[in-house]
């Protein structure tokens, strides 16, 4: 055994489908770490994760093979472990290959394929069946891929196959409290097997998920010896002496609000950069949702790449215009004021005769939101700028938003934040001073929420207080509680039923909404796939009535 053994964790931000660019990035890390013994790259590093139905394309495997050939040819005595999809023409695997001195030393096939939440691996891959161990400087290294670690048996079998160190490659997405949950799982595997673990996660935003990095090395007792940063690329070499990882200075683990905020910044930045947008814009109303979205955008891209547009109508309060202006000035982004009165009046003049004698209702409110949407989409088209839509999870849950109005836009940075979390993150952001002014004007946080689409309108005219709404949404949509469970929490039957009806009635709206990063345990996209045409809500209502009877 030749110790110390140096194992490099390459926590890289790779791009789905960019096989050549990902390969170049991998080759650059290999060239820079020739003093290491083993360099470990993330799960499916070659394709990025998740490649989704790209995995059905036969040509993908040709490009992947060519890239792996180049990596193999570039290896010296430094071993390299890299994740990639693999096929023999009939069967497809999520694989991890190890190359050294221009040879393939081992290929391992993932044994546990996650098929829940945002994951669909059983749609593409067949399970591997064999633990894989290879020898490096006399030390036996056992290979694992992500989900393999989330139950005991794959790690146990790898130990039984002779492993002395476990190396796991991962694409483990962020959600609230994920870091501590993940650490518990990893620590349990170390304690069960009494083996140290090198855990390499990917980092970066990919459509609706954000990979948070937080790669770690744990010792055989499950204690963290090395920890890579949250939501940042990093390449760090861990040194093993006597099969014990040498402790490395640990970065501070961000607390809950900071960890979510940083994940949202990364998700937004990567969506904009990886899709090639020069800039973003948004409607800035003087309300908290657009204010938090603006702060995220400026933190992700810098003020010079962000434009905010205030579009007052007759119901817009003066303080809304003042606060929007003040925030744009503090954050250093472009700011315009474009009144929508002439457009709304013109639409109304045309529509009023066609409306006949039907009384005014939400139609008139939606028209204001739609005029704003048209203006913002015009600016987006003209300048090639991505329009950010500002809806939060509570509004999207109950459909308190206008199709082709404030739902216009290509990316929705806060769509998975319940309104209570919008407040929490806004308060958090204001603890980070910028030019001695709060990033979000205090009055925006303290004033009562209003869509300002009708005189003296408040959100709470149509909705229960947000803490109540959020708890019912969380209970019903994230934790699958029944009507009886929610009533037992102290909410009235009428309120619970009303919110559930609204949630189910608005699936069609959410399906037409822009993509945005997941931060809760269950988002309204891949995590919760409900039919649009769906009468289960009647079944629920009826069964609660009959239970009571
Ligand atoms: N199942 C289904 N499949 C496909 N389409 C369906 C549908 N059900 C209704 N529709 C269609 O959807 C349309 C209704 O949706 P939509 O036009 O959006 O309008 P709607 O949902 O009726 O109203 C929007 C609500 O959101 C509030 N709002 C608007 C803007 C901002 C805010 C805020 O605070 O942020 C709040 C506004 O005050 C109002 O209460 C109908 O025309 C209907 O035809
Ligand atoms: N006067 C306005 N000027 C610019 N944009 C607006 C204006 N009013 C609404 N919007 C846009 O439409 C979105 C929906 O806003 P609305 O005021 O109806 O409710 P909200 O969900 O409370 O959002 P916010 O808290 O940002 O006001 C806003 O976030 C903003 O992007
Ligand atoms: N890519 C995977 O296998 C990820 C699944 C795993 N449970 C995680 O979220 O970490």
UniProtKB/TrEMBL annotation:
Its EC number is 6.3.5.1. ATP binds at residues 283-290, 390. GO terms for molecular function: ATP binding; glutaminase activity; NAD+ synthase (glutamine-hydrolyzing) activity; NAD+ synthase activity. Keywords: ATP-binding, Ligase, NAD, Nucleotide-binding. It comes from the Bacteria. The keyword NAD applies. Residues 5-242 form the CN hydrolase domain. The active site is at residues 43, 110, 146. Deamido-NAD(+) binds at residues 366, 395, 509. One of its GO terms (biological process) is NAD+ biosynthetic process. PANTHER family: GLUTAMINE-DEPENDENT NAD(+) SYNTHETASE, NH 3 /GLUTAMINE-DEPENDENT NAD + SYNTHETASE. In the C-terminal section; belongs to the NAD synthetase family. Belongs to the NAD synthetase family. This is Glutamine-dependent NAD(+) synthetase. It comes from Aliidiomarina iranensis. The lineage of its organism: Bacteria, Pseudomonadati, Pseudomonadota, Gammaproteobacteria, Alteromonadales.
